[in-house]
Amino acid sequence: MPKNRVQRIVFGVLMSVTMAYGMEVYNVAWKEGFPTLAGGFSNMTNGVFWDALLEAAYMWVFVFIFSNLWGNRLGARLAGKLVDPSREGAFVCTLVRSGCTVLVMCPTMSLVAAILFNVVMAGAPAAELPAIWVGTVIKNFPMALLWNVFAAGPVSRGVFRRCFSRLGERRA
C-alpha cells in the first residue's frame, strides 16, 4: 500500500472519491424516495447516478480533508487497540481498520451533510441540528460500513496497486 507522501495522497483521493460517490448515490436515492416504494432501491433510475455525481464532485473534498485531519489517525489508533498485526492476518487488520475509520468518518461526514443539506440548503432550524445529525448517522452508518468494506476499499486498493505496480515495472 502507500509507501510515501505522494502515494498516500493518491490513495486518499481514490478512497475519498469512491466513498463520497457511493454514499451520495445512497443519499440521493433516499432523498428521491426510492426506499419508500414497493421494491425499494430496485426502483432507482439512472438519474440518481448523475445527481450523486454532482454532489460527490465537492463532497469528496470534505471527505479527503476530514479523513486526513483526524479520521484516518483516530481510526488507525482505535484499530491498533483492537488488533495486533503480528498476530492477526492482513485481511482482519484491514477489515478492523476500515470499520474503525468508518466509526470516526461517518459521524463527521453526517454532520457536514446535516449542516450543508438540511440547515444551509433546506433551511432547517439550526436548533434541530443535533437531531438531524443523529438521524443522518443512523441512516448512513450501515451503508458507509458496507460500502467501505465491500466496494470503496477493494476498488481503491485495486486501482492503487494497479497504478503503482505498473509504475514500478516501467522503472525496472
Describe the structure.
The protein starts with a helix and ends with a helix. It has four helices and no strands. The protein is mostly helical.
| Unreliable parts | none
Element-level helix/strand string: HHHH
What's the mean pLDDT score? 95
Major sheet details: none
Structural class: mainly alpha
Distance between the termini: 19 Å
Count of separate DSSP helical elements = 4
Strand content: under 5%
Helix content class: over 70%
How many beta-strand runs?
0
Rg calculated over all Cα atoms: 17 Å
Instruction: State the shape.
Output: globular
What order do the helices and strands come in, and which of them pair?
Layout: H1 5-31, H2 47-82, H3 90-120, H4 129-171
Main attributes of the structure:
172 residues, mainly alpha, 4 helices
Offer a concise description of the structure.
With 172 residues, the protein is mainly alpha-helical. It has 4 helices and no strands.
